[in-house]
Amino acid sequence: MAAALIDGRAAAEALRQRLAITADFFRASTGRAAGLATVLVGEDPASGVYVRSKGKATREAGMQSFSHQLPVDTREADLLALVEQLNRDEQVDGILVQLPLPDQIDAARVIDAIDPAKDVDGFHVVNAGRLAVGADALVPCTPLGCLHLLKEQLGDLSGAEAVVIGRSNIVGKPMAMLLLGESATVTIAHSRTRDLPAICRRADILVAAVGRPEMVRGDWIKPGATVIDVGINRVAADEDGKTRLVGDVAFDEAREVAGAITPVPGGVGPMTIAMLLRNTLVAAHRRAGLKVPEDL
Ligand code: NAD
Predict the structure, then answer these.
(1) How many domains does the chain have?
(2) Ligand 1 contact via 212 beta carbon (within 6 Å)
(3) Are 119 and 105 in contact (CB under 8 A)?
(4) 103 lies in which domain range?
(5) Which positions ≥6 away from 203 have C-beta within 8 Å?
């Protein structure tokens, strides 16, 4: 029997409706809307699309969006000065600096300059550390979205055998930490892992965050496993010449074996922006000294 499809669009829409209600309560209790500032340096078309859709989703959820667009030749000192200004701005609860940044700017230095309480991407070392020790953190949006889908699909993850392929600071490592926090037994696999297929075959939960089109084959998957495909890869189409998006998992093969699987597109992708809104509301509540609602 073919695997169940995990519908990230529907899950993200349901979450965004709940977030809009929480955003209304926040505004009613504080007299101001929660605010997200986005910073885009340069004209990269893909980054422009991401930033604009983040701004639109923020406004649709009843929050304020402040967008800052800087020229491609912006000096690092000027970007750092803008980050400082946003750190001090009481209307701003979340700061998102869109990556990648142009070569003259050190991204690590910029991330380091963001107030950890406003670091809604969860990339600051303070938030990574807080996640690692199990303290309240702002957690990177994509792995947080994956965890949300997994818990909706499986409920309790305790004791499950989980394999995460990829060890980036943005996806793989925080994903592993979140799964550990749910008491799963976690293996992190990466480019130097020996016999990756055998390790994947152990997994009740398999998260692929690699960036290699359709690398994970059907016979790497344990029958009945839940597969979360984070990969977004653009490949040339076969006949009509148009490109198409595929994940890191060979979807048609995997669907014959897995118990449940996220499609690409329409799986993990939509959850990322929803979790950015969620993180902004969490940051806003903490900054205002309000209790963070439990269903966020
Ligand atoms: P990255 O390049 O920073 O990390 C990739 C990881 O894969 C590395 O840790 C590397 O060790 C591992 N890897 C590379 N080749 C491998 C191999 N042959 N076998 C096993 N492991 C291997 O990438 P990232 O930022 O973590 O992103 C991963 C994928 O997720 C990309 O396709 C990216 O586009 C996608 N992504 C999607 C979203 C979303 O919203 N859905 C968000 C972020 C990233």
Answers:
(1) 2
(2) yes
(3) no
(4) 30-120
(5) 161, 162, 163, 187, 221, 222, 225
Ligand 1 center–CA 50 separation, angstroms: 18
Ligand 1: residue whose CA is nearest its atom 17: 191
Each residue's pLDDT expressed in tens, for the chain with a length of 296 residues: 899 999 999 999 999 999 999 999 999 999 999 999 999 999 999 999 999 999 999 999 999 999 999 999 999 999 999 999 999 999 999 999 999 999 999 999 999 999 999 999 999 999 999 999 999 999 999 999 999 999 999 999 999 999 999 999 999 999 999 999 999 999 999 999 999 999 999 999 999 999 999 999 999 999 999 999 999 999 987 777 788 999 999 999 999 999 999 999 999 999 999 999 999 999 999 999 999 998 88
Regarding whether 163 and 246 lie in a shared domain, the answer is: yes
- Our answer to whether residue 98 is catalytic in this structure is yes
- Choosing from 64, 118, 119, 121, the catalytic residue is 121
Residue 173 is a catalytic residue: no
3-state SS track over 97-124:
ECCCCCCCCCHHHHHHHCCHHHCCCCCC
Q: Among 98, 168, 187, say which to mutate for ligand 1: greatest number of ligand atoms within 8 Å of CB.
A: 168
> Could you tell me if 166 and 91 lie in one domain?
no
Q: Which residue, by CA, sits nearest to atom 34 of ligand 1?
A: 232
